[in-house]
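thread: overnight batch results

M.L. [08:02]
morning all. the overnight job finished for the chain we discussed friday. pasting input first so we're all looking at the same thing
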Amino acid sequence: MGKILPILLALIGIGAGVGAGLMLKPEAEPVALENPCGDLPAPEKAAKDETAAPTDVEYLKLNNQFIVPVVNEARVSSMMVIALSVEIPLGRSEEVYSREPKLRDAFLQVFFDHANLGGFTGAFTSSRNLDVLRRALRETAQSHFGDLIRDVLITDIARQDV
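M.L. [08:03]
and the structure it wrote out:
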């Protein structure tokens, strides 16, 4: 017991010292960094900044995933599970939801065509394959819905081999 008391007092003292040091620490002042090359003119913004998110659109996630069978030699070899979102003008989500069955039907046809052409075999996530699929989905959506759908985004894609 006699050896524990000095250790306990030392720990309490160290804890109190650390606590006091943290509470009394002065706030760091911001350091102004100077450019060694002198002042440079501010870069001019491009007329249209492609990286800025447009404020007049919203992204609408379609309610259910798409399940697409991949058929090889008259038998299902794998299943594709795909989730999509669509880019639409702000405030028109109810219009899309009311016509979602028609949109899903059109998208399923695109997926079946893509699967039958071999788009979901091999390296199905390559940029080229996904660009072809995105373009087909966008063109189909715009042919059925006009300016209501601006773009189609593939938010999730997975293949389950059977």
